[in-house]
Amino acid sequence: MNAANAMPPLLELRGISKRFSSRLDFAARLAARLGAGGRAQTVHAVDGVDLSISSGEVVGLAGESGCGKSTLGRIVARVLEPTEGERRWKGRAYAEYDAPASRSERLAVQMVFQDPFASLNPRMRIVDLIGEAPVVHGLVSPGERDDYVAEIMQRVGLDATLARRFPHQFSGGQRSRIGIARALAVKPRFLVCDEAVAALDVSIQAQVLNLFIRLREEFGLTYLFISHDLGVVRHLSDRVVIMYLGRVVESAGADEVFVRPNHPYTQALLAEIPRLEATKRTYIPIRGEIPSPLDPPRGCHFHPRCPHSTPRCQAEAPRLREIAPGHLSACHLNDSP
Amino acid sequence: MSGDPLLRVEGLRMHFFTKAGVVKAVDDVSFSVGRGEILGLVGESGSGKSMTGYSILGLIDPPGRIVDGRIDFDGIDLTRLDAAAWRAIRGNRIAMIFQDPMMTLNPVLRIDTQIIEAVQAHADVSRESAIARAREALVRVGIASPDERLRAYPHQFSGGMRQRVAIAIALVNGPDLIIADEPTTALDVTIQGQILFEMQKVCRESGTALIWITHDLSVIAGLADEVCVMYAGRFVESGTVADILDRPLHPYSRGLIDSVPSRNERGRPLRQIPGMTPSLLSLGPGCPFRERCTSASPRCVESPDVTEPSPGRRLRCFHPSA
After folding, report:
1. What are the tens digits of pLDDT across the range B94-128?
2. Which residue of chain B is at minimal alpha-carbon distance from A201?
3. Which residues of A touch B191 (CB under 8 A)?
4. pLDDT tens digits, one per residue of B122-180
5. How far apart are CA A64 and CA B189, in angstroms?
6. How far is CA A225 from the centre of its chain?
7. Quick one: DSSP state of residue B90?
8. Does residue A2 carry a pLDDT above 50?
9. Which residues in chain A touch residue B193, judged by CB atoms under 8 angstroms apart?
10. Residues from chain A contacting residue B215 (CB–CB below 8 Å)
11. Cβ separation of A207 and B272 shorter than 8 Å?
12. pLDDT of B2 above 60
């Protein structure tokens, strides 16, 4: 961590945890008071995650559903507040910023959502969807808004003459571009892309991925690219972070993860990716399903499904530690001689 | 492929007659599937792949109608069946698995009720033997503790488990043909791997033919024997998996394969197909792909015929890539 500390990372997460608790309703509270059990249930969505992202870097965050990757993305975008831990932006904790600075720095991190159908208000015209935020935040005057929106639409490959239309008049790929344009309109430095291409067809997905690659160069953007699709993650990312049940299990350079995966979960996940090359193969699945985050297994979260599990894995959670330069993994197997 | 194939679709056309005009959802599509064979039906949204599957099972509702073509299933022309004959075939000799298992399963009925219903609809058996068959079907799709699971409701299952139950219902009557419409799209990769494993095993063991409808070429790569590619309701090309993936002839299949991230150098722009899928409403004659095609010529305003460039391969294009 101390090496090459001349530039602080753009964004740093320290020990971030997020727990969601259900509130007991009246009947359950009554039952609890009468001693009939009934405890509030808590989901450990994110559990002690450390992550730092440098300016200009693309970090891919991958994992199965329920692993906490979207929750972590929302915490990074400051849509959610963490239960524990600290977020640092440009080397300072958010708490150290005064109110106006905090407000303007909030604009610097924007989010692109998965579902291009649900994330656009169907009653708003495109010009309002893209132009509302920059006007509210005083980036452009109301008079300049239409020209500004037209320019952004062109940057993301949309025909600017369509600005007066409504979202339902666009295809899925175009709506994705609208979602990206809306995020870019407030001149962010950092984009959190939560499954931004998952809903698209293969040929359209390639177009949108190319757009992300181009925008990164044009605007000098930093991405946290969240996806369950490891092929997409590998293509776009400099570094890949794999999560399982709220914890980071492995983190390394993109090629390193795919060529020398260390954690048994990463290895299993990579083995499962259907490949274009693997003509006629026999599928050998990993056992079981991702356990409920309401009641995660003790010790290493992966041990019930792990082929190498030992008694130690059931008792003690492995720490994420460096096994090679820049390659972190959380597995007890790395300790054995 | 020895003898007659189990299913032969010939020149199928299924059109929707809407107020805005005729939508040619399936327009001249032909393929065949043999017993124990797995056919991958590949296309993007709007390519007509699901509608082809629904046509085979007679699930087309007005304003849709099969206007032309034959669907020959083991000597029966499926386009000419009445409702009673359909009831004997659907869920019995031909079964379907849908994309969303939450929509397939009735949320207010227990799993055992739903499987027993499927068994007793086609076989005159006692409740006890129906339960025994239900139990056996759950075991075949890899569900642990089947007795306990039979008494559960769909909401008590995870997405992957629900899809296994849907597959178990499809399998319970020992069908000759299963049509699977993107059954793993909503699932995680590890669960998808498990489902593909079970399906592959079932087809190998029982000789059931399988049509796997998907937009994901990489799923097909490890699973299917033959592949049929569709675009905008039309047949594009077909052949063995190795032929299509390694030597695609049609510019569309080639573009589709090239745009998959793993076929591209990391971090570089992907080779993309320009433009987007045309609206089926305004589609005129000629090759529907010509506006996005790099090899298109003035000749492409006419519709190319299906040719057979090599045995077992069929193609509809004037300008195949070498």
Report:
1. 999 988 877 889 999 999 999 999 999 998 999 99
2. B44
3. 64, 289
4. 989 999 999 999 998 888 888 878 888 899 999 888 888 888 899 999 989 989 999 99
5. 7
6. 6
7. B
8. no
9. 271-272, 274, 283-286
10. 201-202
11. yes
12. no
How would DSSP label each residue in A48-112? EEEEEE-TT-EEEEE--TTSSHHHHHHHHTTSS--SEEEEEETTEEGGGS-HHHHHHHHHTEEEE
Q: For chain B, say whether A292 makes contact (Cβ under 8 Å).
A: no
Neighbours of A138 (CB within 10 A): 8
Determine the Cα angle at A40 with ends A35 and A45, to 5°: 155
% helix, strand, coil for chain A, step of 5: 35, 20, 40
A64 touches chain B (CB under 8 A): yes
DSSP B174-228: --SEEEEESTTTTS-HHHHHHHHHHHHHHHHHH--EEEEEES-HHHHHHH-SEEE
Quote the CA–CA distance of A67 and A305 in Å, as a whole number.
15
Give the Cα separation of B70 and B54 in Å (integer). Answer: 14
Phi, psi of B62, deg, nearest 5? -55, 145
Helix (H) or strand (E) holding B88: helix B83-89
Q: A272 and B189 in contact by Cβ < 8 A?
A: yes
Q: Hey, are the CB atoms on A282 and B261 less than 8 Å from each other?
A: no
d(CA A260, CA A187): 37
Structure tokens at B302: 């006419």
Tell me if A273 and B189 make a contact (CB, 8 A cut-off). Answer: yes
Tell me the shortest Cα–Cα distance from B88 to chain A, in angstroms.
34
How far A64 CA lies from chain B's nearest CA (Å)? 6
Nearest to A64 among B190, B245, B267 (CB): B190
Pairwise CB contact (< 8 Å): A203 & B256: yes
How much is the ipTM here?
Answer: 0.78
